[in-house]
Amino acid sequence: MYSILLSLYHKEREEYLAACLDSLIVQTCPVSEVIIVFDGAIKKSLEEIVVQYQAYLPIKIIRLKYNLGLGKALNEGLKYCSYEWIFRMDTDDVCLPDRFKKQLEYINSHPNIALLGTQVAEFDETMKSIIGVKQVPISKLEIEKFALKRNPFNHMTVAYRKSIIEKVGGYQHHLYMEDYNLWLRIIAKGYEVANLPEILVNVRSGIQMYTRRKGLSYIKSEYTLAKLKTDLKLQPVGMAYAYFFIRTLPRLLPSSLLGRLYHSLRQKQ
Asked: Which residues, by range, are in coiled-coil regions (predicted)?
């Protein structure tokens, strides 16, 4: 038995949400519980879709009076998850039919695992044109090394233990990086982590999602990330801030150039 946790925002498109929920219906491992957090006021058309799918999926709706942002919305949703194992996805993602089956098989055969992700295929908004594959490392050792430079998990693919997320303090506000922040705190505690080598989630990405992640607010977020690595004693101060500058430089590029750079990197993967 497991929970699936999603946060729904009023700007989501109806057809994306429907495709997301359709992918849960066809899972080879029956879905136990779906927690959907309405992060603030939701369009009537979106709510109608969720209500319609309650006939096919065990969906619980959690309503937030105001838009709190992803991290706080997920923290609220965590309170309502009935099971120890919680799977994440976003409301515009599409899970492959055996996603939960394969992750649960790994979980059942690795009783000490705390956090498990997978690879993703990134598509344009239509889900017709693939941009590339976002690859993340597989083993705990590889993940620990990779985490010092880049986010070692695809957030929309992870499964984690509710009790451990609560122990490390849950999601914390960190612009664009709530998930990365959480993974670092889990890694710092020495918990077992892994990624499966298979692609089990298709995501709508698009270059525009990355080109908007620039400017002063993003640079401040990168600084917070560097400080977190040193506070957790994961990385020496000098190295942490060296990576801060390396990660920040692309954010100073014009949007068009940043988009082309991102697209080129994904094609190589």
From this structure: none
- Please tell me the distance from the alpha carbon of residue 6 to that of residue 23, in angstroms, as a whole number: 14
Determine the Cα–Cα distance for residues 196 and 102; give it in Å rounded to an integer.
9
Which domains occur in the chain, in start order?
1-92 (3.90.550.10)
Per-residue pLDDT, averaged over 115-125, amounts to 95
Give just the sign of the alpha carbon dihedral 250, 252, 253, 254. Answer: positive
Q: Give the Cα separation of 92 and 17 in Å (integer).
A: 6
Q: At what angle do helices 178-188 and 216-231 cross, to 10 degrees?
A: 10
Short-list 13, 7, 10, CA closest to 88: 7
- Amino acid code (one letter) for 23: S
Provide the residue type at 2 as one letter.
Y
Higher pLDDT, 36 or 213: 36
Q: Are 184 and 234 in contact (CB under 8 A)?
A: yes
Could you tell me if 251 and 215 are in contact, meaning their C-beta atoms sit under 8 angstroms apart? yes
- Examine the pLDDT at 84 and tell me if it is beyond 60: yes
Given this model, what pLDDT does residue 206 score? 63
The Cβ-side half-sphere exposure at 177, using a 13 Å CA radius, reads 23
The most distant pair of C-alpha atoms in the chain lies apart, rounded to whole Å, by 55
Token pair belonging to 24: 């849960």
The tokens for 260 are 């082309």
**Of 96, 88, 138, 136, whose CA–CA distance to 113 is shortest?**
138
Find, among 211, 205, 181, 183, the residue nearest to 195 by Cα: 183
Buried b (16+ CB within 10 A) or exposed e, 18-48: bbbbebbeebeeebebbbbbbbbebeeebbe
Model confidence over 198-252: pLDDT tens digits?
999 999 986 556 555 667 788 899 999 999 999 999 999 988 888 888 777 766 6
